[in-house]
Amino acid sequence: MSKVFAFLADGLEEVECLAVVDVLRRAGAEVTLVSVTGSREITGSHHIHFQADALFDETAAEEADVLFLPGGMPGTNTLKAHEGLKNAICKANKQGRRIAAICAAPSILGEMGLLKGRTATCYPGFEDKLEGVSYTRQGVITDGNITTARGLGYALDLGIELIRLLMGPQHAQMVKDSIQYDQV
């Protein structure tokens, strides 16, 4: 079973996070919502409240097959400031484990230098944070072990892409069919 950690901070873009988590769980992935704030209570950028499954210090990021960073502000800045998370991302990248980021969150990977020489996308206005990147306006792009998505409108596409990468195209198609999604 694929194990995914979705990292949360107050001010995240709720649907970007939860749509990806939802389709991954439908596919059978074990997804853990991990708060980096020291509190399980999370308030999104649109004042939707929900609860994380675990705190960062209660988890071992090296156990995850995928590290997922949702966007939104100021959530992206909080994720970017968390040294433990940045260390986990660097380690995952060196090990070739999957990393996914949507909206503003690819800027974290860009500023860390992890996207140099790759093709990536992000929310418009954050392109300057993608150092050394071949930028695309494509909704979702996978280059090596890193998948980036442009924004909220591509959250389901990101989830489906992660299912395809983790479990294969047939499993991704099965989930698409079950949710009546024929956009990608």
CATH topology: Rossmann fold
- The N- and C-terminal alpha carbons lie at a distance of 24 Å
The quaternary state of the protein chains shown equals single chain
Strand content: 15-25%
Query: For this structure, what is the CATH homologous superfamily?
Result: Class I glutamine amidotransferase (GATase) domain
Question: How would you sum up this structure, described in words?
Answer:
- This protein is of the alpha/beta class.
- The protein has a single domain, classed as Class I glutamine amidotransferase (GATase) domain (Rossmann fold, 3-Layer(aba) Sandwich), CATH 3.40.50.
- It contains 6 helices and 11 strands.
- It has helices spanning 14-26, 75-81, 83-95, 106-111, 155-167, 169-178, and strands spanning 3-8, 30-35, 41-43, 49-51, 54-55, 66-69, 98-102, 119-120, 134-135, 140-143, 146-149.
- The strands form 3 sheets. The chain has a 7-stranded mixed sheet, with helices on both faces. Strands 3-4 form a two-stranded antiparallel sheet. Strands 8-9 form a two-stranded parallel ribbon.
- Helix 1 (14-26) packs parallel to helix 5.
- The chain is globular and about 40 Å long.
- The model has no long low-confidence stretch (mean pLDDT 97).
